[in-house]
Design goal:
The protein has two domains: about 1-30; about 40-150 and about 180-220, Cytochrome Bc1 Complex, Chain D, domain 2 (Orthogonal Bundle). With about 230 residues, it is mainly alpha-helical. Strand 1 (about 35) and strand 2 (about 45) form a beta hairpin. The protein has a two-stranded antiparallel ribbon with strand order 1-2. It contains four helices and four strands.
């Protein structure tokens, strides 16, 4: 019986030590971090706008982290850099202004740590991609998010925010109607555009692509975005 108590206490202490090492220590480490001062005099990270912060909540509510990571792996640990998903590995400093960190584990879709710097992923691209991913990525596995948009009748001039959809994607839209993003859609896109991990940090220098040449954007690889981005 005495041995059993000793074993139980040992297991509890082991679990407590593991929790302290993996969780408590990391919280302490990130709590001590400050934004880095770049050679330009700017600070990184600068934090997010209120709209982008709302977009982060929408990202969480829609379960986007179930299919995407937000962590570019060290170059010798995977092909993230070669895929064009980032220019350096992700570090703790990237998240010091975030209340919620969506590192993720599953990559049904590509990593989103640097989606805000990818040249193909414009605001219009993101809007079309959220409404129906197949409009911009034909083989995308990502679900549609039509509830982030409003179908409304055109009164006078079309809205400047109205989606410019190809005819094959307008079959269910009556003549004289348009699809416009809601406040939630705009906030989510603001959040995605704020994800920029291309700043050189002391602990994470920019890396070069060993493959060489131009890397196709992640949307054109075999990886899918929320599923295929």
């Amino acid at each position: 019986m005495n041995n059993g108590i000793v074993i139980l206490i040992g297991l509890l202490l082991t679990m407590l030590w593991s929790w302290y090492g993996f969780i408590a220590q990391n919280f302490k480490a990130i709590g001590r971090l400050e934004p880095d001062t770049l050679i330009t005099g700017e600070r990184f990270p600068t934090g997010r706008s209120g709209t982008a912060t709302l977009g982060q909540d929408i990202y969480r509510a829609n379960g986007c982290a179930s299919c995407h990571t937000m962590q570019v792996r060290v170059q010798d640990n995977g092909a993230d850099i070669e895929r064009g998903w980032g220019k350096r590995n992700t570090v703790l400093r990237d998240f010091i202004h975030d209340d919620h960190v969506f590192l993720g584990q599953v990559r049904i879709g590509p990593d989103l740590a640097g989606i805000g710097t990818r040249t193909y992923a414009t605001r219009d691209w993101h809007m079309a991609h959220l409404f129906n991913p197949r409009t911009v990525v034909p083989k995308s596995l990502m679900p549609q998010y039509p509830y982030l948009f409003e179908k409304r009748k055109i009164n006078g001039q079309p809205s400047p925010q109205a989606l410019n959809l190809a005819p094959e994607f307008r079959k269910d839209i009556p003549e004289g109607y348009e699809i416009v993003p809601t406040r939630e859609a705009n906030a989510l896109v603001d959040y995605l555009l704020s994800l920029q991990s291309d700043v050189r940090l002391f602990e994470a220098p920019l890396l070069t692509n060993r493959v060489g040449g131009n890397v196709a954007p992640a949307a054109q690889t075999t990886a899918a975005a929320p599923t295929n981005q």
